[in-house]
Amino acid sequence: MNGVDNELIKKIPGAPVIMTSVEWAINASRANSLWTVTFGLRCCAIEMMHTGGTKTDWSRFGFEVPAASPRRADVMVVAGTVSKKMAPVVKRLYEQMPGPKYVMAMGACAISGGPFIYDSYSVVMGVDKLIPVDVYIPGCPPRPEALIDGFIKLQKKIMAQKIRK
Amino acid sequence: MTVRELLEKIKQKAEIEDSKEDLGVLNAYVKPSSLRSLLIYMRDSLGFDWMSFMTALDMPQENTIEAVYELFSNSSKDSARIKVKLSRQAAEVETVSDIYRTAEWHEREAAEMFGITFKNHPHPENLILTPDIKAPLRKDFSGGDMKRMPE
Ligand code: SF4
């Protein structure tokens, strides 16, 4: 499993039992079954589809299936240009996701408005103006490897969460 | 039909303010009042059965907005471009969406992008834009958080 510290899993000899910490078990379950809302808004979406395809297959790392509904998803991948008309929809779908929820901004457009930063009357200058973003993936568009790298960064972030305040 | 023949024909039907040939296509500026009668004549008598598109141009130096109607004939494969000049302050013209159905959506787009009013349009509401963005394709548009490209 990704990022497993061997210290944390203890096998009891002679019995089908392992011991570990609750925190690690919860975080590991979360990090390795991230269901995605694939918010493909423009050209970056093509690269995202490719990442989910056979060649780079993101299920290998535990991001699993793209969820058919935001109500059973954990992470939203905003891939592309968020227009002002789309902004209420992005926000609404984010609000429908159950917590804990994470957002990845994929591509220059979702990070800052990208090529549309000047003279544009219709583009939201970065999805972080609407919803909190966990991982930013630069590129125009980012390669599938970069998207997977972003996902692994997100998993690291989840593994570092503390259950006790 | 050559450009010259076409021009002679439409001159008898409408007031042509100005005309020129551009890459073999006639560009004719007509008075807004004679636009509808001219388009009906071109569709019914000259075989221009197809409107490729309708759009607009903003000309702040001349203080005009040009509405552009591009026509095409499926039988003779001729094109023609009919333009009307409107004032920027009160851009108003009759709709032609009952003559060419293509114009219906294209006029709605031109209306929201350039702030033109199409009189008697069947669906005068916005086609694409949200109502808070007004006439963004005018050259002097500035609104909301739009940043100008540094010189
Ligand atoms: S960042 Fe580039 S590739 Fe991605 S949506 Fe924007 S323009 Fe398209």
Output the radius of gyration of chain B: 16 Å
Task: State the end-to-end distance of chain B.
Answer: 46 Å
Termini gap of chain A: 26 Å
Q: Please, how many helices of chain B?
A: 3
Instruction: Output the CATH class name of the largest domain in chain A.
Output: Alpha Beta
Structural class of chain B: alpha/beta
What summary fits the major beta sheet of chain B?
5 strands, mixed
State mean pLDDT of chain A (0 to 100 scale): 88
Task: Explain what this protein looks like in three dimensions.
The complex is a heterodimer of chains A (165) and B (151). The mean pLDDT of chain A is 88. Chain A is elongated. In chain A, α1 packs antiparallel against α5 (144-159) and α2 crosses α5 (144-159). Chain A is of the alpha/beta class. In chain A, 31% of the residues lie in helices and 13% in strands. Chain A folds into two domains: 1-31, no CATH class; 35-159, Rossmann fold (3-Layer(aba) Sandwich). Chain A is built from five helices and six strands. The two termini of chain A are 26 Å apart. Chain A has helices spanning 22-31, 44-52, 87-96, 107-112, 144-159, and strands spanning 10-11, 18-19, 36-40, 75-79, 102-106, 135-137. With 151 residues, chain B is of the alpha/beta class. Chain B has a domain at 3-88: Beta Polymerase, domain 2 (2-Layer Sandwich). In chain B, the strands form two sheets. In chain B, strands 1-2-5-4-3 form a five-stranded mixed β-sheet. In chain B, strands 6-7 form a two-stranded parallel ribbon. In chain B, a hairpin with a 6-residue loop joins β4 and β5 (79-87). Chain B starts with a helix and ends in a 32-residue tail after the last strand. The model of chain B has no long low-confidence stretch (mean pLDDT 92). The site of iron/sulfur cluster has 12 residues of chain A, from α4.
